[in-house]
Amino acid sequence: KGYEKIPLLASANLRGDYLQTAIASVAYQYGPGLATATPNFWTQVTTGHWQDAVTNLNDFGDAYDTRRDREAALIQQDITNGSVPVKC
Predict the structure, then answer these.
(1) Which long-range contacts (CB under 8 A, 24 or more apart) does 41-44 make?
(2) How many helices (H) and strands (E) are present in the chain, helices listed first?
(3) Nearest to 67 by CA among 28, 34, 35, 17
(4) Fewest beta carbons within 10 Å, which of 6, 17, 26, 75?
(5) Are 41 and 57 in contact (CB under 8 A)?
(6) pTM
(7) CA distance 61 to 20
């Protein structure tokens, strides 16, 4: 899985099924080098800056705009329904 390496996702308090799906989708494309290939995104998801991750995915700059937009929408859905806390 790998989610246990992200303390916020391993937390029993954090629901966020869509969030996990979005992160897994990015990780699937970038593989084990996710942290180095996407340092901003990695920092955002490991520190719980979900809205920043949404903004980042919406302007990611890779060849998969449609996929990144869908991932951003998934995270936004968890933010909107209160499944994940939002940091300012």
Answers:
(1) none
(2) 6, 0
(3) 28
(4) 17
(5) yes
(6) 0.84
(7) 21
Closest C-alpha to 23, from 14, 12, 87, 13: 14
Measured from the Cβ of residue 25, the count of other Cβ atoms closer than 10 Å reads 17
Residue 88's nearest CA partner among 50, 39, 38 is 50
* CA atoms of 77 and 12, how far apart (whole Å): 19
Kindly report, residue by residue over 1-17, the tens digit of the pLDDT.
455 555 555 554 566 78
| Burial class of residue 16 in the structure, from the number of CB atoms within 10 Å of its CB (0-12 exposed, 13-18 middle, 19+ buried) | buried
